[in-house]
Amino acid sequence: MGAQKSIHAGNAKIDFNVDFTHKLCAALMLHSSRNTDSPLSLVIGSLCIKHPNLFGKSEKLDVLWDKGLYDSNVLIAYRKPRPEWLSQQSFSIQHSVSPEIGVHGVPVDNYSRSGSGGVNLCRFSAGLDLSEPASSNWSSKTSLKFEHVRPINDDGRSISRDLHGFPVTCSGGCHDSMVVIKQESRFAKASEHSFTRFNLQIEQGIPLLSKWLIFNRFKFVASKGIRLGPAFLLTSFTGGSIVGDIAPYQAFAIGGLGSVRGYGEGAVGCGRSCVVANTEVTLPLNRTIEGAVFLDCGSDLGSGRYVPALRHGKPGSGVGVGYGLRFKSSLGHFQVDYAVNAFQQRTVYVGFNSIGS
């Protein structure tokens, strides 16, 4: 239930969306200790403003605001046109507030769910993105950003320690600051019967001030899809590691949808390093429905001792198996997965992707 509206104001376009559905579902399914007396807490929605010609020279301005049950995000991006053979520049400012579940969440129900650990992250970032011209199957983007991270509790107050008395920042205070250079490279190749994708992200923290974080973090995702008669086999492998300064919220979280199904978000483990492997086979049942079977596994490679994983009893490695259905329609793709983890706990995942997302 909700409302959607698009408005054209001169050259600018405004997309407005308000949705009450998620709030009603969550009220029935979830118990929260947060104060939701404010009428705004009943609203889940988004506001998008796009101006294609801000100063008369094709400069683009995008303003995006999203609000969820317990999270919000504001993004302002400005892009100045340049010749196609030069790097495309984008200046952005972003502010977000979201629960930190992957690392500080507490596993419950045999690790099938992760409960709130009372830690939320308030992030502010500002910087420059440079997108290199695509060549063949490769594309790349480089960014230089200042980031300020402030952990807060469920009441919105700044905190330096979690509910168990352990630090939630690298500095030991109520916030962390850093300047980060990030390089992202993508490879994609597809044919009628297969596709190959590879993504590599490398981040370097630059200590312009003595208390700012210095670290090197990399993450890669490799995936391959092959058609085998009427069936389609999809495999993917994800890995990453971080050296240098590390705040708990920077750790790799393993578990949940998109990682190891059958576990809650971060319920398998979290640490300085991670590996996750996924295999899925889909088979068409009719023109609009596909059946799927899958196997997921992941590990923190014994690096969970650097973050709160061990004191929360996370196993550090896990395997999930299951099956599901994929529905295709003109509105989007609907997905239902039924997964079982290594502790014989069963979990159902439901997802929907619209055509335009």
UniProtKB/TrEMBL annotation:
A Pfam family reported for this protein in Swiss-Prot or TrEMBL: Omp85
Record-level GO BP terms: chloroplast organization; embryo development ending in seed dormancy
InterPro entries, per database record: Bac_surfAg_D15, D15-like
Keywords, in A-Z order: Membrane, Plastid, Plastid outer membrane
Keyword match Oxidoreductase: no
Gene3D superfamilies tied to this protein: membrane protein fhac: a member of the omp85/tpsb transporter family
Main location: plastid
Protein's UniProt keywords contain Plastid: yes
Record's subcellular location: Plastid, Chloroplast outer membrane
Domain Bacterial surface antigen (D15): 53-343
Cellular component annotations (GO), alphabetically ordered: chloroplast outer membrane
Protein name, entry field: Outer envelope protein 39, chloroplastic-like isoform X2
Organism: Coffea arabica (Arabian coffee)
Organism taxonomic ancestry: Eukaryota, Viridiplantae, Streptophyta, Embryophyta, Tracheophyta
